[in-house]
Specification:
The chain is α+β, with helices and mostly antiparallel strands. The protein has one domain (10-96). Helices cover 38% and strands 15% of the residues. The protein is built from four helices and four strands, in the order ααββαββα. The strands form two sheets. A two-stranded antiparallel sheet has the order 1-2. A hairpin with a 5-residue loop joins β3 (79-80) and β4. The chain is globular.
């Protein structure tokens, strides 16, 4: 969504989505997984890698399901529907294989 005539309403976005208890808990889990990967030496700050969950939070996953390290571009390229919900955890690149 482009904001060309008015500034982006960050306060409203936070209140409606990012500030909800559910999203705060998910963000805390993501941060915890990344901290553990840094501690284990799997990733470093600024290396362009993401700590991806084997089963996405949108699909009911958690840190217990496992995490893996992959390129940020691979991790952020999943197929989504018109409402931007996750449809497939397999990227276009992986489907071609």
């Amino acid at each position: 969504m482009a904001y060309t005539k008015s500034p982006r309403p960050y306060d409203k976005e936070y209140a409606q989505y990012q500030g909800t208890e559910e999203q705060k808990k998910k963000r805390a889990q993501r941060n915890k997984a990344r901290r553990e990967a840094i501690r284990e030496g799997k990733v470093r700050k600024g290396d362009g890698m993401d700590v991806a969950h084997v089963k996405a939070f949108d699909k009911g996953g958690s840190n217990k399901d496992g995490v893996r390290v992959e390129n940020a571009s691979k991790n952020r390229s999943f197929k989504r529907d018109a409402k931007r919900n996750l449809v497939s955890e397999t990227s276009k690149r992986e489907r071609k294989k």
